[in-house]
Design brief:
Number of strands: 15
CATH superfamily of the domain at 4-123: NAD(P)-binding Rossmann-like Domain
Shape: globular
Number of helices: 13
Strand order of the largest sheet: 14-13-12-11-7-10-9-8-15
Bound molecules: nicotinamide-adenine-dinucleotide
Helix content: 40-55%
Strand content: 15-25%
Structural class: alpha/beta
Largest sheet: 9 strands, mixed
CATH class of the domain at 4-123: Alpha Beta
Length: about 375
């Protein structure tokens, strides 16, 4: 099978946890180059994957005619400039979310797409999660999503990056949820209302142009054992729920499977055994895994921070998922295979595109405005 040559620009936490390992196993992609400004990061990667070329200057990656596409997983401020340069150099782009903080910046990527004929996919990867792809089909077979509830909740202390100040959970995390609700609704957001009970905890109400509605609970106060994401939606007929990407239920939907479990997800180099727990026990297996990881975290945090033992184990806290990588399939592998398919076969893009990145940024900005003013904000997207 022909494979798309894909380089990764920005080989930090997310790229190492997801894109690199997924490109290693993607059936239609060849990991063509690691590019990072950090020589130390590249040296570490070279030890692990000596067959993959390394490069510190992304401009050299873009000048390489063998490379078909680039995954841009730098932090936010480089998303737009590198995307534009990459498309101008003839590469297709998969750029991490959020595309940019302002609509004006996002628009520059749309202009580059039009000018170059290249495609920019945005890393709002939940559209590629197997459980959500099934949920979408089930909703559509049963008259479409009418109203929905989405919880995304984790621990406040998680570092969301230094770039956005207050509202960064909305910008960096809720962009995924806004996008997936647009996908489920099959419609664009028409208005938003947001209220915050306290810092880093928002309740959001969305209305869609087609009349659908959705509520989001976004919280930074959940104990770490909590399954992070829960989705439920009323269709024209019946209800569908998905817990933590691993357990789907339907209620009152004749002809639909009533319950399905989805296997977990892990890095090729790492522990795989939890995948079996999740495949066999669904949410129960996932909760057991999270409880184990929370115990590990507490154990390490309780160590003397000046001790050798702590020094040896503290990296586990940086990555949170020490032995197993991310535990559930949020669509990262599917996104890489889809990107390669877009490059090789010019298939229609099912992932989020730059235009989705733009609209989601406008919706997030409206949510922040609503939270800060107490007003309902209408959008014309
Ligand atoms: N889709 C998801 O599920 C998901 C999850 C986590 C993070 N993200 C997004 O991924 C992006 C990266 O996050 P992270 O946690 O991996 O950050 P990180 O800081 O760990 O990694 C960024 C990397 O980019 C490198 N870099 C910076 N400038 C560069 C340049 N000019 N050329 C090449 N490399 C350069 C840095 O050295 C670093 O290694 C962020 O935008 C974040 O919002 C997405």
């Amino acid at each position: 099978m022909k494979k798309a040559n894909i380089a990764v620009i920005g080989c930090g936490k997310l790229a190492q946890n997801q894109h690199i390992s997924n490109l290693m196993i993607a059936k239609n992609a060849n990991l063509a180059c690691f590019c990072d400004v950090s020589k130390e990061t590249l040296d570490e990667l070279h030890v692990r994957f000596p067959e993959v070329p390394i490069e510190t200057d992304y401009k050299k990656v873009l000048a390489n005619p063998e490379i078909d596409g680039v995954v841009i997983a730098t932090r936010e401020e480089y998303h737009v400039p590198i995307s534009i340069e990459a498309m101008e150099a003839g590469k297709h782009v998969y750029v991490e979310k959020p595309l940019a903080e302002t609509p004006e910046e996002c628009e520059k990527v749309l202009i580059a797409e039009q000018k170059t004929g290249k495609k920019a996919l945005v890393g709002m990867n939940r559209r590629m999660a197997p459980a959500y792809r099934d949920a979408k089909k089930i909703l559509d077979r049963n008259g479409g999503m009418k109203s929905a509830f989405y919880r995304i909740a984790d621990a406040f202390e998680i570092d969301w990056g230094e770039y956005y100040g207050l509202g960064k959970r909305l910008t960096l995390e809720c962009c995924h949820i806004i996008d997936i609700l647009r996908y489920f609704a099959g419609s664009e957001v028409a208005s938003v209302f947001c209220a915050a009970s306290r810092q880093d905890e928002e309740s959001i109400l969305l209305t869609f142009k087609n009349g659908a509605t959705a509520m989001i609970l976004s919280s930074g106060y959940a104990p770490w054992e909590t399954p992070k994401e829960h989705f439920e939606a009323m269709a024209e007929i019946g209800l569908v729920t998905v817990d933590e990407f691993c357990e789907l239920h339907t209620y009152g939907m004749p002809g639909e499977e009533s319950c399905r479990y989805y296997e977990g997800h892990s890095h090729v180099e790492r522990e795989q055994s939890h995948k079996k727990w999740i495949k066999n026990d669904g949410l129960k297996g996932c909760v057991a895994l999270r409880a184990y990881l929370a115990d590990e975290q507490r154990r390490i945090e309780a160590l003397d921070h000046n001790s050798k033992e702590y020094e040896k184990e503290r990296h586990i806290l940086d990555y949170r998922y020490p032995h197993i990588n991310y535990s559930v399939d949020k669509g990262w592998l599917g996104a890489m295979e889809h990107f390669a398919d877009v490059i090789l076969n010019d298939v229609p893009v099912e992932a989020a595109r730059a235009s989705d990145g733009l609209n989601v940024t406008q919706i997030i900005n409206a949510i922040v405005e609503s939270r800060d003013t107490g007003k309902i904000i209408k959008l014309d997207l």
